[in-house]
Description:
The complex is a heterodimer of chains A (195) and B (391).
Chain A: H1 2-59, H2 65-84, H3 101-114, H4 117-125, H5 129-163, H6 166-170
Helix pairs in contact in A: 1-2, 1-5, 2-3
Chain B: H1 12-26, E1 33-35, E2 47-49, E3 54-58, E4 61-65, H2 69-82, E5 87-90, H3 97-104, E6 109-113, H4 121-125, H5 127-134, E7 137-142, H6 145-154, E8 160-161, H7 168-172, E9 188-192, H8 202-215, E10 220-224, H9 230-235, H10 238-242, E11 244-248, H11 252-261, E12 264-267, H12 277-285, E13 289-292, H13 295-300, E14 308-310, H14 315-327, H15 329-344, H16 348-367, H17 377-384
Parallel strand pairs in B: 1-2, 5-6, 6-7, 7-8, 9-10, 9-12, 10-11, 12-13, 13-14
Antiparallel strand pairs in B: 3-4
Helix pairs in contact in B: 1-16, 2-3, 8-14, 12-15
Amino acid sequence: MVDVLQLATFVVIVLIAVAWYLSYSAARLDRLHAKAEGAMSALDAQLIRRAEAALELANSGVLDPASALLVADAATESLERTTEHPVTDDLLDGQHFGGREQVESDLTGALTAALPGEVVAGLRARADEFVTDELDRVAASVLRVQLARRFHNDAVRDVRRVRAKRTVRWFGLAGYAALPEVVVFDDDVPLGLPG
Amino acid sequence: MVCPYAWDVPGGVQFHVRDIAEHFIRQGHEVWVLAPAESDANLPGYVTSVGRPVPVRYNGSVARVTLGPATSARVSRWLEAGDFDVLHLHEPLNPSVSLVALWASAEPVVATFHSAMLRSRALHAAHPLLRPSLEKIRGRIAVSEDALGTVQRHLGGMAFIIPNGVHVDSFAQAPVRSEWAGTSEAPTVAFLGRVDEPRKGLEVALKAMPALLDAHPGIRLLVAGPGDASDLLKEADPRAAAATVALGMVTDDDKASLLRSVDAYLAPHLGGESFGIVLVEAMAAGAPVVASDLPAFAAVLDGGATGILFETGSPQGLAHAVLGLLADPARGEHLRRAGRARSRIFDWGVVADKVMAVYETVIAGAAAEPEEPAPQGLWGRLVRGVPGGGN
């Protein structure tokens, strides 16, 4: 009799422990998903800002016409893709990038081609406040895109690592949440700018 | 911002935190720093002390840390009172107040990794415990490639590299001190760093001295840094010892003046340096830099374009480099100019702008997250695993 009681107590304790662990894991996973989602929104916002800054620079008339056209085209493409696929209305809860990698890489390439070191140095040498301002905006948005993409990918890696755990898979703790994916595109614009 | 090491003891991480904090305060941001301190006296207004650090053996060296329930309580109170937009932790992989703050935090966290840590058994063993806390970090910064390696080894994933900064102007405008300035008959070279720390390489400099004395009998080696040099000097060549001037520990102002005055700054380090901040200071002050060809130093010196690199640990290499420099004043002048220009890119203004961009990105990400109800009570905290988050 005593043995049965002891056993029952033991089983109850184990069940409580398992229940706590599962609930805790699910909450942790939920937090990680939220982090990845927030990071994706931040990346989306920074990409829009980068495209806007690039478009403004292209339209400001300080670049030669060919470079301006190249940048304007890539920036417009990027902005169109954002409005066509707003991340917020996404069926996948904003955890994927909608295949925009190529478009963003293209904008990076256009900016790199249009703004080699000597052009930037020349534009800065004019000491025109408007031009410097435009360049600073592009440089700032380029840096923020780089940061946002890295932080998003770190968040995604955390999610994927936890979701690969056996407990999470066996007990379906992830529910129906989509598996977020890392976003890989070229965001390295060597802008001969400070930093 | 949380600094893991004692505020009133000089060190790279402390200066990093101080310089960034003061830069942001000048820009009008509200910055509060939490750090251990030996005493509450002489702390600037923005620093809150978490108490005295105690020495503990960790990962093969003695770490001075502040731990315990009283510390946890202080950290929680500080976080609560501050109501911060973003929490910036330094060295969160060490057992320190940074780790405690990470555990207790509910705000968006940015972490900066400073050291090049090859491996840590403790970290490996405690990994499952630390993981959930480390997952709170939204933005990672590494101060160098080596520090980035630490992040990749211990956490996986990436970090954004933002190198350390230096107040270029305070070095560039430091007054020249005649007793340290060299002449053509009696040039001066400077060494900075702990003298009794073998990896700082004072021994290499001393071994190079005889060759330098043969060519320039009046040359003096000015040694500035804490520690007792008498043992090294006893073992060194008597001529080298006689030409060495030990200045002991110097103030920041004296350090800048020293670098402004000398004909060359020697960095004969043997390794273990993740970032050569003194090299940047020397360049800012306009001292030609002669440094070991460690990867970190080569990166700072732009692969040798703004300073002279010699084979690490080779006294002959060091002597050869210094002799070449002293024989060619035009080269020295060129290096002074190139070094000054190079040091600008490490200026705090540029660094701080990047750190601010990290804060903004992290805050934007946190703001865009779907709302989750704050956990209530003990059960909520246990289940959600967000210590200190709810109340």
